[in-house]
Amino acid sequence: MYQEQSIGEGLANFQAALEQSGDSLEAYIRRSYIDRWTGDDIYNIMAIRTTFVNTMHNYLTDYGLLNMERVSISPLTDPLAHDIEHSPFINYKGFPYMTTHSMIYSKLMACFNKRMKGVFVDSPNIRLELESPDGSQRGKYLIDFSQMDIEVRRGNKISLDDYLNKPDEIKKLLEEDQEQALSFFEGMIAAVVSALKEKNERNLAALGVRLELPKLPFPRFLKDEAVKKYGGAAYERDLGKEVEGHFFWVTGLMRENYDLIYPYLLKDGSRRPLKEFTSQEVYNYDLCIQSCSIDGEYGDAYEVLSGGLREWLYEPIVERLLDNKIIKVKPVFSEGNITNIEELEGFGPFLMAASQKAADGSRLFPSTFGGGLGIERSLFALLRGKKVKKVDDVAFFGKNPDSHPIYIF
After folding, report:
1. How far apart are CA 403 and CA 32, in angstroms?
2. Count of CB atoms within 10 A of residue 336's CB?
3. Tell me: the pLDDT tens digits for 127-153?
């Protein structure tokens, strides 16, 4: 259990611990930061990062997406399916705001306008990941990182009646939407690799890695089948050994409440238990990347982008939140207000927005697909080799929970 202390007290205690072990604060700062800041590796990495990010921006704007503002604090953020230490809060004017885990709900609401083809933002993400329980260096986690958050409107106008009564037709439409989503992201990655090969070959060679232009479409694996074949701990690494190239997809991961599963709500008003769903009924995806050395040897694969088709009808949105135990009760609307808003925590206003209809009775909440690509995680996965050993190697101020007892910058 960590005891709260002031910044000055914490730094004084850290310095004293260094001194007791025969070290000094100066030596720690030099080896942990200044040696990296003044070396060739960080220059090459940042040159690659610049091309990586700028090419994504160009691809997304050329596709017709619009850039939106960053949302750093809100009463509502992504609850996430995996364990983190806790959600940090910021109190402002007597009200608690959460720091951003991801901008999923902000992206969805930004797509209400039907003229919007979609949105993107290089978003802030703060996730206080638990440090490695055995003290090992896992290499891939940062508690403070950048993510290219993307959301694209889907073309369908599926009603609740169609959702409940035309399962075969709806499943076909959803499969087409998923194919569009995967092709969209594959196009983005192909554009990035092409630009890196054109502009950054020397930087890549200096880091001891090479990039190969990907063949489209990328290999695809169902999560259920991967786990059955390799087990649940390291199937991404093992799948990587089956493919030639840097990139592949894992699809059908039962995960977040907003990732679309179908058929979920049934005609009789019941819902299927989440444990019954197979990967073929879960419309989401993870993009995995593995590096390649100059000698042609591939490294371990890492997940770098998570996304999916989104739940878009109000009724399944609410039921998924209940199923995932994110809210305890359904909202009760009365005369423009929510009578049980206190029980809903930060989700009350979002659910009010999700329930809204246009003057003609049509739903306003958008049907979309999207994803969040971790920029530092992607660079780590692409550049991992002789020079890049862990994710904080690709950042100036990388806050890896397994690297530092305290973050001084």
Report:
1. 10
2. 6
3. 998 899 888 999 899 999 999 999 999
Residue 247 phi, psi dihedral angles, 5° rounding: -125, 140
Rounded mean pLDDT, 17-46: 97
According to DSSP H, which parts of 136-166 are helical? Answer: 160-165
Which helix (DSSP H) or strand (DSSP E) does residue 190 occupy? helix 167-199
Burial class of residue 195 (count of CB atoms within 10 Å of its CB; 0-12, 13-18, 19+):
middle
Beta strands 247-251 and 220-222: pairing type? parallel
Q: What amino acid is encoded at 394 in this protein?
A: V
In whole angstroms, how far apart are CA 256 and each of 129, 250, 253, 308, 309? 17, 15, 9, 10, 11
How would DSSP label each residue in 21-83? TT--HHHHHIIIIIHHHTSHHHHHHHHHHHHHHHHHHHHHHHHT-EE-----EES-----SS-
CA-atom Rg of the chain in angstroms? 23
How do residues 158-199 score in pLDDT, each as one tens digit?
999 999 999 999 999 999 999 999 999 999 999 999 999 999
The DSSP letter of residue 87 is: -
Percent of residues in the chain assigned helix, strand, coil, to nearest 5: 40, 20, 40
User: Virtual CA dihedral for 175, 181, 183, 188, nearest 10 degrees?
Assistant: -170
Q: For the packed helices 167-199 and 40-63, what is the interaxial angle rounded to 10 degrees? A: 140
Amino acid present at 193: V
The answer to whether the predicted template modeling score (pTM) of the entire model surpasses 0.85 is yes
**For residues 73 and 89, what is the distance between their CA atoms, to the nearest angstrom?**
8
- The C-alpha atoms of residue 235 and residue 37 are separated, in whole angstroms, by 35
Q: What is the mean pLDDT of residues 104-121?
A: 96
In this predicted structure, what is the pLDDT of residue 156?
77
Q: How much is the mean pLDDT over the chain? A: 95
**114 in Cβ contact with 363 (< 8 Å):** no
Residue with tokens 């990655």: 189
Confidence of residue 3 (pLDDT cuts 50, 70, 90): low
